[in-house]
Write a structure and sequence with these properties.
There is one protein chain. By secondary structure, the chain is an alpha/beta fold. Helices cover 49% and strands 10% of the residues. The chain is built from 17 helices and nine strands. The strands form two sheets. It has a seven-stranded parallel sheet with strand order 1-4-5-6-7-8-9. A two-stranded antiparallel ribbon has the order 2-3. Strand 2 and strand 3 form a beta hairpin. Helix 16 packs parallel to helix 17. The longest helix has 27 residues. It is globular.
């Protein structure tokens, strides 16, 4: 068996599976005590730059949570660090940019990415992980999408209203499109290198894209997203497009080129799948805060989502965003067990009904 035929990869290729695969965004780190022990000695960026240590952190949720896929431990800002952007990942805040991009002179500082020179540690981590994971679990590589990266670069730090970002879009469109073209090229180079190093799946995170209207998305962002997926789909591996608060953008996401669309908890899974079309896979969509509730409530919500998926090929169980750092680990373990138990049950019932 190869990773192409792991449970996750079969589901990602819209093949019928005996149960629903499950993994969680931000599963590597945050909630795990073994990760917190490592963080006493190393920063996030320092971990990422040490392939053996980064491999260890990436594998922790495989060992502790028994999920079906590993996602490379990194930050979405990693390629920007690689091209020399002066930034700091501040705990409980996020990326803080020393010199935000506001002028054409600032834009010139954003040079192309040369992955083997700029982020060799990422590629070495992927190679090590492929050896560690074997054939039964897939490895997910990822990148931040141009809009989300641009929002940090322009605002200088995380934002709630994206005032400066939207102002640049509408009042300085030439500047905006110049920024997006550069970020598109960086993202393509970064994800291409991950695929060549051995990643089984590539996910594009557009965490803050839900701040835009549909019209703004189509005009200012979508062409670059489409070009990214057109480039990385040439590797014939599953591609995932995830954004938070995107219920009103799903009709556009379905045309962006990803093979799987990640959806959050703000829209029922079956309704989201109807919008994106059943020729695509879907990933989601448990509200991560529910993992801090009772085991009974978690089990009920897991069952609800799996029943909405109705055992259709192409469903990958995940959260509607990343794990909250205060989530009880035992509840995450239970959620994984519930997904496996309930999806096996539902698949058996469906198969029995089909044979009658």
């Amino acid at each position: 068996m190869t990773a192409r035929y792991s449970l996750f990869s079969r589901a990602a290729h819209l093949e019928q599976t005996e149960r629903t695969p499950v993994w969680f965004m931000r599963q590597a780190g945050r909630i795990l005590p073994e990760y917190r022990a490592i963080r006493k000695n190393w920063t996030l960026v320092e971990i990422c730059k040490q392939p053996e240590l980064c491999t260890e952190v990436t594998m922790q949720p495989i060992h502790h949570l028994d999920v079906d896929a590993a996602i490379m431990f990194a930050d979405i800002m990693t390629p920007l660090i690689g091209v020399g952007i002066d930034l700091e990942i501040v705990d409980s805040i996020g990326p803080v940019i020393a010199q935000p991009i506001r002028t054409k002179a600032d834009l010139e500082r954003l040079r192309p990415l040369a992955p083997t020179e700029d982020v060799p540690y990422v590629l070495e981590t992927i190679r090590l992980l492929k050896k560690e994971l074997g054939d039964s679990r897939a490895l997910i590589g990822f990148a931040g999408a141009p809009f989300t990266l641009a929002s940090y670069l322009v605002e200088g730090k995380p934002s709630r209203d994206f005032r400066l970002t939207k102002a640049m879009m509408h009042s300085e469109p030439e500047m905006w499109h110049g920024l997006m073209r550069r970020l598109r090229d960086i993202t393509i180079a970064y994800m291409t290198a991950q695929a060549q190093a051995g990643a089984d799946t590539l996910q594009l995170f557009d965490s803050w894209i839900g701040a835009l209207s549909g019209d703004d998305y189509v005009k200012f962002v979508q062409p670059y997203t489409q070009e990214i997926f057109a480039a990385i789909n040439s590797f014939n591996i599953p591609t995932i497009h995830f954004g938070s608060n995107t219920a009103m953008l799903l009709e556009h996401f379905r045309n962006d080129g990803a093979k799987i669309i990640g959806v959050d908890w703000r829209i029922p899974l079956d309704r989201a799948w109807d919008i994106i079309g059943h020729d695509l896979g879907i990933q989601g969509n448990l509200d991560p805060t529910l993992l801090s509730s009772t085991p009974e409530a978690i089990k009920q919500q897991v069952r609800r989502i799996l029943e909405l998926a109705d055992c259709r090929p192409g469903h990958i169980f995940n959260l509607g965003h990343g794990l909250h750092p205060l989530t009880p680990v035992d509840n995450v373990v239970r959620a994984v067990e519930y997904v496996k138990e309930i999806s096996l049950e539902l698949n058996a019932v469906k198969a029995a009904g089909a044979s009658v």
